[in-house]
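W.,

You were right to be curious about this one. When I first looked at the sequence I had no strong expectations either way, so I just let the prediction run and decided to look at it fresh. Below is the sequence, 445 residues in total, followed by the output.
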Amino acid sequence: MQEYVKQPSISLEDYGVRETAELTRKYLERAGCKTTLIPTKGYPVVFGHYDARADKTLLVYLWYDTQKVLDGWKYPPLEGKVIESGDFPKFIVGRGAFNKCSLISFLGAIDSIRRSGQSVPVNLKFVIEGEEILGSPHLPDFVRENKSLLSDADALIFPRVTQARNGRVVMSLGGKGMILLDLECSGERWGRGPTKSSVHSSERAWVDSPIAHLVDALSKLLPSPNYEPQVSALRENVSAPSNDDVELIEVLSREFTLEQLKVRAGVQRLAYDLPISELLTKYLFNTTLNVTRIESAPGDYVVSNRATAKLEVRFLPRQEASTIVAGIRKFLDSNGFRDLDLRVRSVINWCKTEKRSPITRSVIAAYEEFGVVPQVWPHSVASPPYSIFASELGIPTSDGGLGHGGRHHGPDEYFVIEGGGTGVKGLADCEKSYASILDAFSSMK
């Protein structure tokens, strides 16, 4: 784990990523897999096949790239330092500790099974990508182009530590889809404002501002007071919660207070004054449009010739990304913003897995073996990249694994080696839970 965390793999900066791909391949090979690096238009996918000569095959999805290292670290971000004081008896700190240690612990479970003289109960096919931080832009093409390698899979597992700091396990039956978009105003395309480069801000007295024009468009897309998106395509083809979903929401609404929801969201107040069950329904079953940031030429004292808003849509089962993008384009055009350029950066589709599916029941059975009852959500509001396997291969998916990690993508990212008194499991039980999931899935009907 320390070796893996020490190896930089910052995809946003093209720092150490290809070297990490080769290191990942070596880890899979050491675990008994036949391995290869499969090129994409971006970073390579590390593919590994463990042939256990078993009846069932599981796809194992993870990623090897990490976020940037920004300010705020108490511990060195690329040393894989093991800390033996603090909230847990022992934990490892470093950029990428969450996903990198999840992979190593899963391989540790495989290694333990083999060393004990037992057979791994299922065949495993590993797909470890290097662009998760970038929005997995080339993963859909990889899956479509390599269906012959993947089509015999019965299900997919995303091995990760799922316990919160209090020991509670949260389990989601799928996730929303996600579209990443660039909405850009340039003076050249608009026909107003600076065209080739920024000009001094004193020229604003008689020169139009592309940034102001972009902000005007955003205010039409997301008007106050609640900043609800006005694009009708976001509200179309929205499937109502199923009976199972309604039942899960009713259970969840009894487990939260309004203050707990605020803490979960990290806010002083929520945007709507509604009962908890309605808030949870809105949280899970609304399509959202969000502005993540606005970029323009750096520096003060300028009128920029170009401004770009980074947009993010989280969409629901039954909705199509192409229909939503077309709807945003139509809205912009009909409101006087034909000059704005709308570009799709990445699309991750939604996925939905039934609670009664074999992989879901296997994960729950493994948790119960350790005396842990998971909190089950109808789906995550996040958008797991592995949903592409569900849509392209028609297989159920699930995350799973006991243990805890935190500050993912933030400073002092960590992975617990020895658990604490709140019920958080350490590395040994994490690996055992993976072995239990594989064992349960091998015999689950």
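Here's what jumped out at me. Residues 2-175+352-443 form a domain with the Aminopeptidase fold (CATH 3.40.630.10). And, maybe more interesting for your project: The mean pLDDT is 94.

Coffee later to discuss?

I.
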